[in-house]
Amino acid sequence: MLPTSISNSPKPKLDFQKDKDFYQPGDTLHLVISFPTELYNQYSLTSIEAYNHPLPIDNNTARMNFIVDCEIDPEMDVPTQNRIQKEIRFDVTYFNKQQKDSSYYMETVTYEVNCGGKL
């Protein structure tokens, strides 16, 4: 079987594991980012950035912790009644060990903050 060209290759899906989906202002969001176990031998996480800041990668896994707030970014956040649905955009670069090349893509993670009557 011939190898698939890079343009036809599906991007590997990273796991973004949040400690929960719904937060209160001041809560800390803990995020663990990694490839699913079945992809560990095929791909390695080369770099990952959020808000233009690189996240440290250890053993093919990145972690991010930050305190959530009720500030609204009009380009990325969707206010609904007492909640804000927020997005975090990640710039991901990974190495395909079989094809011996690197690829880049953008991934988005959403979470909600309960902002009460602050909207």
Quick recap:
The protein is mainly beta and 119 residues long.
Q: How would you describe this structure to a colleague?
A:
- The chain is mainly beta and 119 residues long.
- Helix content is 0%, strand content 53%.
- It is built from no helices and ten strands.
- It is elongated and about 50 Å long.
- The chain starts with 14 loop residues before the first strand and ends in a 5-residue tail after the last strand.
Distance separating the two termini: 57 Å
Computed structural class: mainly beta
Question: Which word captures the global form?
Answer: elongated
Helix-strand pattern, N to C?
A: EEEEEEEEEE
Largest sheet: 6 strands, mixed
Q: What's the total number of strands? A: 10
Into which percentage range does the β-strand content fall?
Answer: over 45%
Mean of all residue-level pLDDT scores: 84
Report the radius of gyration as a whole number of Å.
17 Å
Would you identify the regions where 5 or more consecutive residues have pLDDT less than 50? 1-8
Number of helices: 0
Overall helicity = under 10%
SSE inventory with pairings:
Layout: E1 15-18, E2 22-23, E3 28-34, E4 43-50, E5 53-54, E6 57-58, E7 61-67, E8 78-80, E9 83-96, E10 101-114
Throw out a few tags for this protein:
about 55% strand, mainly beta, about 120 residues, four-stranded antiparallel sheet, six-stranded mixed sheet, 10 strands
